[in-house]
Amino acid sequence: MQKQKTFTLAEVLITLVVIGIIAAITVPMIMANHRKTETASRLKKFYSTLSNAVKLAETEMGLPLSEWLSGNNNLVLKYLNVTEIDPEEDYNAGQYIYYDGGMGPNFAPSSAYILADGSVMGFDTVDTIYFDVNGDKKPNMPGRDIFFFSFADDKVYPDLIFGLWTDSGCDTPEGYSNCPRSFSREVYLDYCKNQKFCTGLVMSDGWEFKDDYPYKL
Predict the structure, then answer these.
(1) Which of 209, 86, 207, 205 shows the shortest CA–CA distance to 144?
(2) pLDDT tens, residue by residue, 119-176
């Protein structure tokens, strides 16, 4: 009878070690890519939903957003898929921490509006909205799971567009009409490195997190 060849214990162990090394390298990459894809998808969906809510609210009011938003932002909420309102202070400014350890950002919404997919949104000011991609889960940091949108010109813009206008020196009544409505990717990237205007960077990249995105999701 022909003798059947089998693997030795050493060969089996070597194979398992190789598989383990490959898994240790590839699994974190796969998980990181999944987080990027999921975060980008939720950001894009929220932007689309928010923009549509504004249009529906304008139709109901018969007026452009700028003429009724002050004191009536709940009308926008009417057209968002809000499943729960959390009046607790879980989402106040103290929970959100900058990378340098400082407290921030400078907002403290009175209520958090929990959406159907578990994400959270709230009004910082009348014309500024924060969006927490994963709700009350950590890290609760701008640029990682917290992103901003703002209302201007009866539209929804990524980030606090007024902040960019201020830095551009065109936010005076005389210069308002000359303020740029969008900025270059280089501008967004530079600001995002300081945890500002990261939404604009992701949007300018076609709702993707590119390899040079400053933060690990």
Answers:
(1) 209
(2) 888 877 778 888 989 887 888 888 999 899 988 888 899 887 877 887 777 766 666 7
| Nearest in space to 119 (alpha carbons), one of 133, 138, 140, 139 | 133
203 token code pair: 């949007």
The number of residues in the chain equals 217
85 in Cβ contact with 78 (< 8 Å) = no
The pLDDT assigned to 100 comes to: 39
Q: Which two tokens stand for residue 125?
A: 């000011």
Name residue 103's beta-bridge partners: 97
DSSP symbols for 170-202: --STTTGGGS-SS--HHHHHHHHTTTSSHHHHH
Distances (CA, A) of 46 to 16, 115, 143, 180: 44, 10, 16, 23
